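Q: Got a minute? One more chain.
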Amino acid sequence: MVRTTAGHAPLVLASASPRRFDLLVQVGIVPDFIEPAHVDETPGLRERPEHLALRLARAKAQAVAARHRDVWVLGADTVVACGRRIVPAPINADEARAALALLSGRRHRVWGGIAIVMPNGATRLRRVVTSVTFKRLHPAEIAAYAATEEWRGKAGGYAIQGRAARFVTAIGGSYSNVVGLGLYEASTLLDGLGFRRLEMPAAAIGRPAS
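A: Always. Here it is, folded:
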């Protein structure tokens, strides 16, 4: 059980993603605990990508909140889609190459879902969308990127903050949403709900134990 300290209701990040933790710290929101939710992320039949992102974010936050009392919980999910076609995180190099081939020379959307469960149990949601356009990729470029294995665990099979940045010709909307969490939306949602940030020197911040 997560316990409050010094009158501060802890913030639990319901995600195993180090990228989301680092993004939050970047804007002064430091999770006290990390607790992955481990929910089933299988899309529903004909489920739209924007609905999937929000549903999974809510499911993650509520699953973790159910195990604790008097805490804030932040859940998030990222879904990459070409039109209504969801491009999931690849599980092997063949799937990574197929994902990049699909995105090559096209504009796609990155849908982000954000869910906050408050200490009183109420849930609030936000949805974020970013458009990203890739240059036309040569098969050799696709093969070289797949060989880096940077795609592992990445929705759409790429990391915009890594080597795949050179594929991007245009981006519209939140960059941090493509990395893993829309910071403007997450921070304004928390602020609006009354979450109190604890200011800490950057040097003192480290990832808390899961």
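A: The chain has one domain: 11-203.
Q: Perfect, thanks.
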